Amino acid sequence: MVFILLGPPGVGKGTQASQLIDSFGGEHISTGDLLREACRNQTGLGLKAQKYMNDGDLVPDSLILDLIRDHLGSIDPKAKILFDGFPRTIPQADGLDDVLLNVSRRVDKVVLFEAPEHELIKRLSGRRSCANCGTIFNVYFSPPKIEDECERCGEVLVHRSDDNPDTVRHRLRVYQSQTAQLVEHYSSHSAVLKRVSAMHSVDEVQSAFRAAIGMD
Is 78 a catalytic residue? Predict the structure, then answer.
């Protein structure tokens, strides 16, 4: 099974994907996480992508698709896959279809998580990330027990440059102008796209998410 999780930055796609994977297994593919890892390792792709990410812009489709193609080649071909925030453009969606076709797979369900802009800005501006293990906290909703310290590995938490309020607003504008086109794209396949409100507790959203993909 291949699932795509759509929605603006800060809507909670990663949290919901992680909970589902913890319960049912599978592979949670976040291109953002993969890109940040590539940047930390200063790979060729990472160096090219760094400027786009710092400015809150989308990384070019060719770079993203190369990253996805390489990653798919390293995982179990029968594993459940959750694409978190990918694809982000129509060309990426078409490219993903081609990549999946090459490994005899296809997109089974697309879930759109929705929340108003003011809520997204609050969530993102309060986010703190662990550069070591990738765990994410939020000073408003899920703060760490010790301020600025990761509960999992003890490393210092950071406020990512792309999570400051001005960059967040820019990221949301980019989403609306480019990524939101995917809603119409996948809506043309009524049996594929499902909508889930992210304005509830994490557990309530998880229940709605599982129902949407038939895993409740």
Answer: no
Q: Which of 36, 109, 127, 194 is catalytic?
A: 127
What is the residue-averaged pLDDT of the chain? 88
Domains defined for the chain, CATH in brackets: 2-212 (3.40.50.300)
Q: Which of 48, 122, 160, 195 is catalytic?
A: 160
Q: How far apart are CA 201 and CA 214, in angstroms?
A: 20
Q: Report the distance separating Cα 34 and Cα 71, nearest Å.
A: 9
- What's the confidence (pLDDT) of residue 162? 80
pLDDT at 184: 87
127 counts as catalytic = yes
* Residue at token pair 């304005």: 199
Q: How many CB atoms lie within 10 A of CB 174?
A: 18
Give 67-103 pLDDT, tens digit per residue: 888 888 888 888 999 998 789 888 989 999 999 998 8
Whether the model clears a pTM of 0.85, i.e. scores above it, the answer is: no
Cis peptide before 165 (omega within 30 of 0): no
Answer yes or no: is pLDDT of 190 > 90.
no
Active-site entry in 36, 88, 109, 128:
88
Query: Which of 13, 36, 109, 128 is flagged as catalytic?
Result: 13
d(CA 176, CA 68): 23
